[in-house]
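Regression test case RT-17, inverse folding.

Input:
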């Protein structure tokens, strides 16, 4: 039973997933700090206080929903421009390099072909 647990925990997929969760959590803190400490104050400086939590529609706290929605849009935009676009650019550059690399060796010159034919004929005679 413990051997099965050890084998499960040591599988590559589980370790990769654990690393992804840790890196994702750290990246989440970076993005949240970017939004809360940089982008939101800039929006506040340009258009007034970016806090809508006081907006209510009767008993419904509509402002909190607006804050969450705006935060989601800012985080999504930041992730897109800071992660997705650079990764797509890097992948397209790598793909271009792979396509430019010769897949097969170039064809030998005529002299080499002729020498190979001569060598083949000499081997047949020997």
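Golden output:
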């Amino acid at each position: 039973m413990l051997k099965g647990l050890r084998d499960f925990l040591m599988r590559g997929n589980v370790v990769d997933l654990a690393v992804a969760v840790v890196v994702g959590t750290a990246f989440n803190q970076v993005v949240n700090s970017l939004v809360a400490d940089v982008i939101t104050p800039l929006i506040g400086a340009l258009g007034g206080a970016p806090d809508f939590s006081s907006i209510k529609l009767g008993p419904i706290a509509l402002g909190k929903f607006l804050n969450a929605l705006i935060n989601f849009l800012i985080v999504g935009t930041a992730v897109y421009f800071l992660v997705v676009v650079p990764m797509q650019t890097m992948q397209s550059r790598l793909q271009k390099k792979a396509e430019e690399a010769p897949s097969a060796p170039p064809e030998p010159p005529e002299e080499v072909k002729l020498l190979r034919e001569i060598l083949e004929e000499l081997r047949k005679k020997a």
